[in-house]
Write a structure and sequence with these properties.
By secondary structure, the chain is mainly alpha-helical. It has one domain: Up-down Bundle (Formate dehydrogenase/DMSO reductase fold), CATH 1.20.1630. It has 15 helices and 4 strands.
Length: 338
């Protein structure tokens, strides 16, 4: 019977990849807004910054749930290995996201302690971002595995490389957040966001360069994948496109009439970085150990789960797109979250 069921691993890989990418992109920019929030010049600016993400920030986290459930259901072996390996940064991330959400609500209700909740919103955003960066770094480096089980310590994920990627993601999300503020605000606040975006872009470029050198040096498989012929010719458009996008980003930040380009260029840099990780590790889902097919659940299980997912996914895309459409345009001080 199972021989009659087609291979659903490529489709589930696409669903998982899209879920993770949409989370990184959508929650990434509102976490970036939260990071920049702590540097806002005054109370009026902080209110505008908060209002720019008020209608959509909680919906963005839907993709985190979708990505986690897709990993658990479609690739249970990978879930069983990855979760204990990055248990502490994932726990810190979830707690920070909860605390950030509480701060978002209480800032408007608990006026006497607004300064405290402002700091909580900023630090919660930064801590969640830093934790996600540690997870990414630990994932790229790989884990200690014996048989089909994680055999290392829960503290193994804290390495110089993962701490570096944690710091790098702060700049990456900051760049996305600044791009969003340029898109949604105007006047002095928009100019402030342009200045912050330049600093974040410099941090992102340093991080991309360092990771591009670091990973091939410590992982021979990654070095062979990128620097052997004919792959070096096949994959060379990725770094070239990255440089061109970075140039476009830098130039658009200097043009006062350019509102959408900084955000679009930042998205492009994340797409290329995401594709770089995929190129380095494909077809592994547990780096350097298990492929997507080896970690997948049975074909019948994937078929059963696919029926609900293919119904739910368009609904998520529809209400996400609708919310962004309804709240399009510039944010104003007289219209916002209260």
């Amino acid at each position: 019977m199972s021989a009659l069921i087609p291979d659903f691993v490529p489709l589930w890989t696409l669903i998982l990849a899209l879920g993770i990418f949409f989370y990184v992109l959508l929650d990434g920019f509102d976490l970036g807004v939260g990071i920049l929030y702590g540097f806002a010049p005054d109370a009026a600016s902080r209110s505008l910054i908060m209002n720019s993400i008020a209608p959509i920030w909680d919906g963005n986290e839907t993709w985190l749930v979708l990505g986690g459930l897709a990993l658990l259901a479609a690739f249970p072996l990978a879930f069983a290995i990855l979760l204990p390996a990055v248990y502490f940064p994932v726990l810190v991330m979830l707690l920070a996201l909860v605390f950030r959400g509480v701060a978002f609500e209480f800032r408007y209700k608990d006026v006497p302690h607004r300064t405290f909740w402002d700091h909580a919103f900023c630090y919660g955003s930064a801590l969640a971002t830093f934790s996600q960066g540690i997870v990414i770094g630990a994932y790229i480096q790989g884990f200690k595995i014996e048989g089909r089980h994680f055999a290392g310590s829960s503290l193994d994920c804290f390495t110089p490389f993962s701490l570096f990627t944690g710091a790098a993601l702060l700049f990456g999300y900051g760049l996305l957040g600044a791009g969003w503020l340029i898109l949604k605000t105007e006047g002095p606040l928009q100019e402030w966001a342009r200045r912050k975006a330049r600093w974040c872009l410099l941090g992102v470029l340093i991080a991309i360069g360092a990771v591009s050198v670091w990973t091939p040096l410590v992982e021979p498989d990654i070095a062979r994948r990128w620097f052997t012929w004919p792959r070096i010719a096949l994959f060379s458009p990725v770094p070239v496109a990255t440089l061109l996008l970075a140039l476009w980003e830098w130039r658009s930040l200097g043009k006062s009439h350019s509102h959408a380009a900084p955000f679009l260029a930042a998205i492009g840099l994340f797409v290329l970085s995401y594709s770089g990780i995929a190129i380095s590790l494909w077809p592994m889902i547990v780096p350097h150990r298990f492929t997507l097919w080896q970690a997948a659940s049975s074909a019948s299980t994937q078929l059963f789960l696919l029926a609900g997912t293919l119904f739910l996914l368009p609904v998520i895309l529809m209400y996400t797109g609708w919310s962004y459409w309804v709240f399009r345009g510039k944010v104003r001080a007289d219209i916002g979250y209260h």
